[in-house]
């Protein structure tokens, strides 16, 4: 199969991905990886890794001077954030360890991140899950305050709930969370694993709110498809001492080289601005579809994180019909379509994708089930 940019061979015409932020096989990533493979593939974390240092410097520029701990995935990044927050509680809050996260959230599939995830379906198989986690309604500052106790050490949230259905936090809420964390001496952890890397029109989603979290986690698009995760933090990084946390492969030279190339391409090619503009254009297409087809409604999102609500549990059917026409979509459960295309998206790509989606929706509209 030939895969480049937004296209998968001749039969699958459009790719939507939250990982391949530069599309498939971007030349900058290919070049960086090929060059790195000929120089150094792996080095123990007992030694300096120049590519890792360069990547940390780039992320520091984008994150108000934060320092980076690299891992292999988003779940690992969140595990590191949870451990660092609990170390803060042990040192500065009389052993406080409780983590408050949000209902409908998703933070990973390890035991701790499953416990932090606010969806019972992800937890049911693994009970008893680790203690010390509770969830409150998203965008509800009063609920967060009511749930806070002397045992609470951190608040963990996504400013856009990606796996939960593309639900966005409002500015007043995020600023309120920041103020509450400051007042209560809590660690504010912002999970940017889906919303980061420019997808919302800024490098990080939290930049839209004029706040700075204490810890930021990243993964997915960080290296444009090569596995890597990162936990970013400021002065609290000093809480970790030798042996507290570690990883064998996190931030290895190949992944770091790919991440460097990805970040530089995003910045040099003005893809942050492109994500904002193309997101507005795609959103307008979704609004048109919602007016045309009675079984979809409520377009929502920011930048290149968009979704629509689907009635009658038709989302999987729409995904299948879109595939028949050469368009890859993603459903979150039976009632949500999620669209997270690469940041290199152009207006003509949106026009083509919209035409294919229109055909798929017409097919579904002609099915008896859509008239329920």
Description:
This protein has 372 residues and is of the alpha/beta class. It has 2 domains: 27-268, Aspartate Aminotransferase, domain 2, CATH 3.40.640; 270-371, Aspartate Aminotransferase, domain 1, CATH 3.90.1150. The protein contains 11 helices and 15 strands. The protein has helices at 27-37, 50-62, 74-92, 111-116, 120-123, 141-147, 171-184, 253-268, 271-292, 315-324, 347-365; strands at residues 3-4, 7-8, 67-71, 98-102, 133-136, 152-157, 160-161, 167-168, 187-191, 215-218, 229-233, 296-302, 305-310, 330-331, 336-339. The chain has a 7-stranded mixed sheet with strand order 3-11-10-9-6-4-5, sandwiched between helices. Strands 12-13-15-14 form a 4-stranded antiparallel sheet, covered by helices on one side. Strand 12 (296-302) and strand 13 form a beta hairpin. Helix 1 (27-37) runs antiparallel to helix 8 and helix 9 (271-292) runs parallel beside helix 11. It is globular and about 60 Å long. Residues 8-16 have low confidence and may be disordered.
What is the fold's blueprint, element by element?
Elements: E1 3-4, E2 7-8, H1 27-37, H2 50-62, E3 67-71, H3 74-92, E4 98-102, H4 111-116, H5 120-123, E5 133-136, H6 141-147, E6 152-157, E7 160-161, E8 167-168, H7 171-184, E9 187-191, E10 215-218, E11 229-233, H8 253-268, H9 271-292, E12 296-302, E13 305-310, H10 315-324, E14 330-331, E15 336-339, H11 347-365
Parallel strand pairs: 4-5, 4-6, 6-9, 9-10
Antiparallel strand pairs: 1-2, 3-11, 7-8, 10-11, 12-13, 13-15, 14-15
């Amino acid at each position: 199969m030939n895969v480049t940019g937004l296209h998968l061979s001749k039969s699958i015409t459009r790719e939507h991905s939250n990982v391949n932020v530069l599309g498939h096989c971007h030349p900058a990533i290919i070049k960086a990886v090929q060059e790195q493979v000929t120089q150094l593939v792996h080095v123990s974390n007992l030694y300096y890794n120049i590519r890792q240092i360069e990547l940390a410097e780039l992320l520091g520029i984008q994150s108000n001077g934060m320092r980076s701990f690299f891992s292999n995935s988003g779940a690992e990044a969140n595990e590191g954030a949870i451990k660092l927050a609990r170390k803060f509680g042990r040192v500065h809050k009389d052993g406080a360890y409780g983590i408050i996260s949000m209902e409908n959230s998703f933070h990973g599939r390890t035991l701790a991140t499953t416990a932090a995830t606010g969806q019972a379906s992800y937890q049911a198989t693994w009970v008893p899950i680790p203690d010390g986690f509770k969830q409150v309604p998203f965008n509800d500052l009063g609920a967060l305050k009511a749930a806070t106790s002397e045992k609470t050490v951190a608040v963990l949230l996504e400013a856009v709930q990606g796996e939960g259905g593309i639900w966005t936090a409002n500015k007043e809420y995020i600023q309120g969370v920041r103020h509450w964390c400051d007042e209560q001496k809590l660690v504010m952890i912002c999970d940017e694993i889906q919303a980061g890397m420019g997808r919302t029109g800024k490098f990080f989603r939290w930049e839209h709110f004029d706040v700075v979290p204490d810890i930021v986690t990243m993964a997915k698009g960080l290296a444009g498809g090569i596995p890597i995760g990162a936990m970013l933090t400021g002065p609290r990084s000093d809480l970790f001492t030798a042996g507290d946390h570690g990883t064998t492969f996190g931030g290895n030279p190949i992944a770091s080289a790919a991440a460097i190339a990805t970040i530089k391409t995003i910045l040099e090619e003005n893809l942050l601005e492109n994500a904002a503009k193309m997101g507005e254009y795609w959103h307008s297409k979704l609004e048109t579809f919602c007016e045309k087809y009675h079984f979809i409604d409520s377009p929502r999102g920011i930048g290149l994180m968009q979704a629509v609500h689907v009635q009658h549990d038709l989302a999987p059917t729409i995904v299948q019909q879109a595939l028949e026409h050469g368009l890859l979509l993603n459903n979150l459960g039976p009632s949500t379509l999620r669209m997270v295309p690469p940041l290199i998206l152009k207006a003509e790509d949106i026009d083509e994708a919209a035409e294919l989606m229109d055909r798929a929706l017409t097919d579904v509209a002609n099915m008896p089930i859509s008239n329920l």
